[in-house]
Amino acid sequence: MSFLSNFFGGKKEIQVKGEDNQSVAQQEFISLATHQLKTPLAAIKWTLKMFIDGDAGELNPEQKMLLTKSYENNEMVIRLIDQMMSADRLRAGFKLALADTDIVALAQHEVDDILPVAQKKNIHIEVTTDKAGVPHILIDPERIKLVIQNLLENAIKYTFQNGAIYVDISKKDSHIVISVRDNGIGIPRDVQKDIFKKFFRADNAKKVESAGSGLGLFIAKSIVVGHSGDMWFESEENRGSTFFVSLPIR
Amino acid sequence: MANNILTGKKVMWVEDDLFLSSLISKKFSDQGCNLEFATTGQAALDALEKSTPDVLLLDVMLPGGVDGFEVLKQVKANPKLKNVPVILFSNLNQEEDIDKGMKLGASRFIIKATVALDDIIREVQEVVSVGK
């Protein structure tokens, strides 16, 4: 959490209304259910990591590979639970803790964080911004961080080896527009209308990576709309996609 | 045995899941800590009456009617214990729970399922070196 103090000043909160009035009891039930699911998963995570790190004795390569695969699958389940809970919480309404934020620094930080993942596929990531400078904006930095993370993760996931991703942050009239462009698999025209729906994944995406919740873009768009912003994309199958996030300057 | 900031430090770990405690125990003993365990909030408060740890690692969901938040509240209200850094652990990650923990004076709120044991060691090292 400490790095964010470099990005923002004072905070203020706003409440974003949800689609339905989820009762406190329902929210508590979902929170407890999430807790009960994640507790044994934490135990599995810690145990597998100890094996992989050699804390319980040396492993042969096959053992290490099998345990690493188990660890990765366990991580996927933990992530899926978190995403399902996030999606449910968004539906019920959520608070934004707005802070004056250097959005360029935030985006660069997320790119720096994910660079090792991109480098495994030899994918080049470039960040550009307005030469005249981009003003700070009032956003919930933790939530917008999730939006940028999601777009970068998708871009890397669905771009082939030696591909390229271009991130741009620019001022357009009264908004800041963040775009993430890749030269990956793209989205087939007939399913583009469904891309922001909960649990939706295009068939060509499933072929590249079979696991995935289909919740990432739903959550990202909900966060952006909660900021009174907008999110859209342009895409051509086998040519790549560009996702845009527009946030009001305030 | 690693000779680092945690060597010789007294760490109290309050957790009702004995298996998780056994995993943590191995990691912390590799750091040269003196690790003390409690499995309920009341047992933790009783132990804290007798000795003051250098850092308190506290699960939020504890059986027996005294949860981690209550232990934290009492620790921060006790002149003898109020400066002991407290790290809360949970798999609850509602913002309200995290806010509550931080407002009660926790130094950190860690979601167990999202961190590795080595990350916990690093957080504890940081908290002990800074003193909060």
SSE layout and pairings?
The complex is a heterodimer of chains A (250) and B (132).
Chain A: E1 8-17, H1 24-52, H2 61-91, E2 93-101, H3 103-120, E3 124-129, E4 137-139, H4 141-157, E5 164-172, E6 175-182, H5 203-208, H6 216-226, E7 230-236, E8 240-248
Chain B: E1 10-14, H1 18-30, E2 34-38, H2 41-50, E3 55-59, H3 68-77, E4 86-90, H4 95-103, E5 108-111, H5 117-130
Parallel strand pairs in B: 1-2, 1-3, 3-4, 4-5
Quick tags:
heterodimer; A: five-stranded mixed sheet; 6 helices; 24% strand; globular; disordered N terminus; B: 132 residues; 5 helices; 42% helix
Distance between the termini of chain A: 23 Å
**Number of strand segments of chain A:** 8
Helix count of chain A equals: 6
Shape of chain A: globular
Amount of helix of chain B: 40-55%
How would a textbook summarize the main sheet of chain A?
Answer: 5 strands, mixed
What is the residue-averaged pLDDT of chain A?
Answer: 88
- Computed over alpha carbons, the radius of gyration of chain B is 13 Å
End-to-end CA span of chain B: 25 Å
Give the helix proportion of chain A (percent range): 40-55%
Biggest sheet: strand arrangement of chain A: 3-5-6-8-7
- The whole-angstrom Rg of chain A is 19 Å
Mean pLDDT of chain B: 90
Main beta sheet of chain B: strand number and arrangement?
5 strands, parallel
User: Overall 3D geometry of chain B?
Assistant: globular
Task: Count interface residues per chain for the largest interface.
Answer: A-B, 21 and 21 residues
**Secondary-structure element series of chain B:** EHEHEHEHEH
Would you give an account of this structure?
- The complex is a heterodimer of chains A (250) and B (132).
- With 250 residues, chain A is α+β, with helices and mostly antiparallel strands.
- Chain A is built from six helices and eight strands; from the N terminus they run βααβαββαββααββ.
- Helices cover 45% and strands 24% of the residues of chain A.
- In chain A, the strands form two sheets. In chain A, strands 3-5-6-8-7 form a five-stranded mixed β-sheet.
- In chain A, strand 7 and strand 8 form a beta hairpin.
- In chain A, helix 1 runs antiparallel to helix 2 and helix 4 runs antiparallel to helix 6.
- The longest helix of chain A has 31 residues.
- Chain A is globular and about 60 Å long.
- Chain B is built from five helices and five strands; from the N terminus they run βαβαβαβαβα.
- Chain B is α/β, with parallel strands linked by helices.
- In chain B, helix 2 packs parallel to helix 3.
- The longest helix of chain B is centred in the C-terminal third of the chain and has 14 residues.
- Chain B starts with 9 loop residues before the first strand and ends with a helix.
- In chain B, strand 1, helix 1 and strand 2 form a beta-alpha-beta unit.
- At the A-B interface, helix 1 and helix 2 of A face helix 1 of B.
